[in-house]
Specification:
Blueprint: E1 3-4, H1 7-12, H2 43-51, H3 54-60, E2 62-65, E3 68-69, H4 77-85, E4 91-93, H5 98-111, E5 119-122, H6 135-140, H7 144-159, E6 165-166, H8 190-205, E7 221-225, H9 244-251, H10 253-260, E8 265-268, E9 272-273, E10 276-277, H11 282-292, E11 298-300, H12 308-311, H13 318-328, E12 333-334, H14 338-348, H15 354-370, H16 390-403, E13 405-409, E14 422-426, H17 442-447, H18 453-460, E15 465-469, H19 482-490, E16 494-500, H20 521-530, E17 535-540, H21 550-553, E18 556-559, H22 567-575, E19 639-641, E20 645-646, E21 650-651, H23 653-657, E22 662-670, E23 676-686, E24 697-706, E25 711-718, H24 720-723, E26 725-726, E27 734-735, E28 739-746, E29 754-759
Parallel strand pairs: 2-4, 2-12, 4-5, 5-6, 7-8, 8-11, 14-15, 14-16, 16-17, 17-18, 21-29
Antiparallel strand pairs: 1-3, 9-10, 13-18, 19-22, 20-22, 22-25, 23-24, 23-28, 26-27, 28-29
Helix pairs in contact: 3-14, 7-8, 7-16, 8-10, 13-14, 16-22, 18-22, 19-20
This protein binds beta-D-glucopyranose (BGC).
Length: 760
């Protein structure tokens, strides 16, 4: 939970606080074991470093929170100002607003001995003023361009308000729907997550090498490094025990791609990685990130992540924690202050090296130079963006509609006709502004809340009689409002039931053991179903939900996620068919919590499920598949996919390694009577490999819009990186092996049509 730290400062920004808010010698790191690789030589940085005292260097490594705490503890604003004045502060998080940031920057630049500007960071996760749908929803669009646009707009709004750095994108792949942070990422697949991670980094920073100094650019942060999504039981901050091959095949790919795309920073994660807390794990932070990938940007800790090495049972005290984190590759400490407090003593005792310290400082200074802060530390107060522009609103509306997934639509219950005589809107989210999702900027929550569904339905069907009854609250057992909702449904031609999770039920520190609709919402749906009148269900939630018996009774179910600022309009756009739904699930929806983990990219067993054989892998009381599979999603028209064609049936592993590719093509026809979207998906399965392979792996997707009666050919290219895999070798061995690979093409992860490719 994010908590309100300083009311006066928060009110200045116009808001109230919201909830939501190896194998190497890691752990024994010493000055001798420390990596001492100087950063890119830069005369400006070298000169500055020569002038800095040890205290000033350690100060650069410190990031303190300003107004809003996004974790336990926090700092007083006066402490922040004093530290800035003394030249003992490198960065501040959770500061916002041109005036506020200029005032604090002035202290650092004009009153500190060396005048080094501060770096201001903020969690701009899916928008600042313009709140886009949550990242999980965006992933459901299967269109990375929507996320690029979110990032571009967010960067502009943020930078103009003094924010230089966003702690986004989050790229933690997870198979845990109980984990609240599933809302912040792209779901269960590394390929999809990678595509979105790169688009978001480029949206914030511009194409690689474009430079960060522009007024519409912010530095991005690839987080959380790494394997945080593997938290056992989905409980936040929990243990992760992971093989090297799973680490490399599942969790690392988005980070590698972000690093290749030039992401400026990386944030360490709260979890342990096979016994070593990520903040002290030199295997991932140094061997992989720095040495294998050549990442030379800044690594920041997560909130108190350095000091939490003590609670992990890994460090003895604050000094030990500081030593371990710095030596394992953490450059900047967020919130806790162990490096600033103990660094000097550690240096003189030889427990940390001066070159390692200089390296970390150099990275921080380099980011400040790259952002242009030495030339222009201030932001133009007159040019601060203080509201969503019309263009931004339009983008938010399009993105939200594009992110929705039509889970079920029996008998063409949707779209609704605008000519419908009367419509009842019922449910706790039907007349609610609480649809922005987790990690929203407090100022935006207050000033630019989500548009309501009820209002948008009235606008979309101006001639209809539209009534509203809440029925039940989002939480709690009170069912006394259900009769009024039933009466509304009985009196209407069709009812739109809007149910879901309040945003505070997903995001950080928001794990749930029961992921059904909270409170008495299922009872409300059951009561509406009993009326026998037509109705549709709209879900607004931050994670996969288990749907109860009501699913059978509901003719249509639209998964709208937490859609953001333009929630109401976007939901109405899809309900009335202004926009054809075309999203697909980026996560499997389990049938029950007991079925978790259930994800499409599981490995096979020696006894794969067979209905007629008891001694196979299954639950006695559940079908083997999830309620809704990864990649599932319907639309208002019908599509037909032809059989996949390969440019050739055989290719040599050697040729693939040299860059050769195989083309897979498929024809797609809109066989219905209206324009619609389909996401063509390509999955691979290596049928016999030296490490058992997932039964399917997504290696291509394309969202296509086609008019009725039209057809097109969709082409994918498969290369070594699609057909090979990482082994358990800790030094990183990627293999493309000879053998047969099945290629599945279809409209979900349950695609049946396949072709075989032989690798020789
Ligand atoms: C979260 C990070 C976030 C940081 C700063 C932490 O609690 O894990 O994702 O960027 O707080 O707010």
């Amino acid at each position: 939970m994010r908590e309100l730290r300083r009311r006066s400062l928060l009110s200045a920004i116009g808001g109230t606080a919201v909830a939501g808010g190896g194998f190497t010698a890691a752990g024994t790191g010493s000055a001798q074991a420390a990596p001492e690789r100087p950063g890119r030589p830069d005369p400006k940085i070298k000169k500055l470093l020569e002038r800095m005292t040890v205290e000033e260097k350690l100060g650069q490594l410190q990031q303190l929170p300003w107004a809003v705490a996004t974790g336990p503890g926090g700092s007083e604003t006066k402490d922040v100002e004093d530290a800035a004045r003394a030249g003992r502060l490198g960065s501040v998080l959770n500061i916002f607003g041109a005036e506020n940031s200029n005032a604090l920057q002035r202290i650092a630049v004009e009153e500190s001995r060396l005048g080094i500007p501060l770096l201001f960071g903020l969690d701009v996760i899916h928008g600042l003023w313009t709140t886009f749908p949550i990242p999980l929803a965006q992933a459901a669009s299967f269109d990375p361009e929507v996320t690029r646009r979110d990032a571009e707009i967010s960067a502009k709004e943020s930078r103009s308000n003094g924010v230089h750095w966003t702690f986004s994108p989050m790229m933690d792949v997870t198979h845990e729907p109980r984990w609240g942070r599933v809302a912040e990422g792209c779901g269960e697949d590394p390929y999809l997550t990678t595509a979105f991670a790169v688009a978001k980094v480029e949206g914030y920073q511009g194409e690689k090498g474009a430079g960060l100094a522009g007024k519409d650019r912010v530095a991005a942060c690839a987080k959380h490094f790494v394997a945080y999504g593997g938290a056992e039981g989905g409980r936040d901050y929990n243990t992760v025990d992971v093989s090297e091959s799973r680490l490399r095949n599942l969790y690392l790919p988005p980070f590698k791609a972000a690093s290749d795309a030039g992401v400026a920073t990386v944030m360490a994660s709260f979890n342990t990685i096979s016994g070593v807390p990520a903040h002290a794990d030199s295997h991932t932070l140094i061997d992989v990130l720095r040495k294998e990938w050549g990442f030379d940007g800044l690594v920041v800790s997560d909130w108190n992540g350095v000091d939490e090495l003590i609670a992990h049972g890994f460090a003895e005290d604050g000094a030990d924690a500081a030593r371990l984190a710095l030596n394992a590759g953490v450059d900047m400490e967020m919130a806790s202050t162990d490096l600033a407090k103990h660094g000097k003593k550690l240096l003189s005792a030889g427990m940390i090296g001066e070159r390692r310290l200089d390296e970390a400082v150099a990275r921080i200074l380099r980011l400040k130079f790259d952002l242009g802060l030495f030339e222009n530390p201030y932001v133009d107060e007159g040019a601060a963006i203080d509201k969503p522009s019309a263009r931004a609103r339009k983008a938010a509306r399009e993105t939200a509609a594009r992110s929705m997934v039509l889970l079920k639509n029996d008998g063409g219950a949707l779209p609704l006709k605008k000519s419908t005589g009367s419509i009842a809107v019922v449910g706790p989210f039907g007349d609610s502004e609480d649809l922005l999702g987790t990690w929203t900027f407090p100022g935006a929550t207050k000033k630019f809340p989500a548009g309501k569904v009820l209002d948008a339905v009235k606008r979309a069907a101006p001639d209809a009689k539209v009534t509203y009854a809440k029925g039940v609250d989002a939480e709690g057992r009170d069912t006394s409002g259900i009769p009024a909702a039933v009466a509304a449904a009985k009196g209407a031609d069709v009812t739109v039931v809007v149910v879901g999770e309040p945003p505070a039920m997903s995001g950080e520190a928001a794990a749930r053991s029961d992921i059904g609709l909270p409170g008495a919402q299922e009872k409300l749906i059951a009561a509406i179903a009993k009326t026998g009148k037509p109705f549709v269900v709209v879900l607004v939630n931050g994670r996969p939900l288990t749907v109860g018996d009501w699913l059978d009774a509901a003719p249509a179910v639209l998964e709208a996620w937490h859609p953001g600022l333009e929630a109401g309009n976007a939901i109405a756009d899809v309900l009335f068919g202004e926009v054809a739904p075309g999203g697909k699930l980026p996560v499997s929806f389990p049938r029950t919590v007991g079925q978790i983990p259930v994800h499409y990219n599981r490995e096979s067993t020696g006894r794969p499920y067979a209905a007629d054989n008891k001694y196979t892998s299954k639950y006695l009381d559940l079908p083997p598949d999830p309620q809704f599979a990864f990649g599932h999603g319907l639309t208002y028209t019908t599509f037909e996919l032809g059989g996949p064609k390969l440019s050739r049936d055989r290719v040599s592993a050697g040729a693939l390694r040299k860059g050769d590719t195989v083309e897979v093509s498929v024809t797609l026809a809109n066989t219905g009577d209206r324009t619609g979207d389909e996401v063509v998906q390509l999955y691979v399965h290596d049928i016999a490999a030296s490490i058992a392979q997932p039964v399917r792996r997504l290696r291509g997707f394309r969202r296509v819009t086609l008019d009725a009666g039209k057809s097109t050919t969709v082409r994918f290219r498969l290369g070594a990186e699609d057909l090979g895999f990482w082994t358990n070798d800790q030094d990183g061995a990627f293999r493309v092996e000879a053998g047969a690979v099945d290629l599945y093409v279809g409209d979900s992860s349950e695609a049946k049509t396949k072709r075989r490719l032989t690798i020789t």
